[in-house]
Amino acid sequence: VTNHIDHGSSGINAEYGGITGLVTYSTANDVREVSRKIPLDRLLIETDAPYMKPANANSVDQDSPKTASPAMGLWIAHKIAELRKVPLDDVLKQVRVNVRNMYGI
């Protein structure tokens, strides 16, 4: 999480917050809670490739490599959408906007 800025009632103080594949693990309660609370317009997805392979990668793709890759960001986005009870497209579109805003592209 970068540069501390208060974002009101969310309880999250950050310019942007990145959620990794850890959110896909059922024991990662703290990360799951953060993924629910961080404002969607401040959310980024990180794969931490080649480490932290999403827990659900093998259940989705039996031929999944043994390590994480940037392509696995979709699994992370899917879990975030599920936890937030919003459509996956909403998460993906907003994360794209957030990345463009953060990098000025």
* DSSP, total strands: 2
* CA gyration radius, whole angstroms: 13 Å
Total number of helical segments?
A: 4
Approximate helicity band = 25-40%
**What is the residue-averaged pLDDT?**
82
Overall SS class:
mainly alpha
Question: How would you describe the overall organization of this protein?
Answer:
The chain has 105 residues and is mainly alpha-helical. It has 4 helices and 2 strands. It has helices at residues 29-37, 57-60, 73-84, 88-103, and strands at residues 17-19, 43-45. The chain has a two-stranded parallel ribbon with strand order 1-2. It is globular. It starts with 16 loop residues before the first strand and ends with a helix. Residues 1-8 have low confidence and may be disordered.
Please render the helix and strand layout as text:
Layout: E1 17-19, H1 29-37, E2 43-45, H2 57-60, H3 73-84, H4 88-103
Parallel strand pairs: 1-2
Characterize this entry briefly.
The chain is mainly alpha-helical and 105 residues long. The chain has helices at residues 29-37, 57-60, 73-84, 88-103; strands spanning 17-19, 43-45.
Features:
4 helices; two-stranded parallel ribbon; mainly alpha; 105 residues
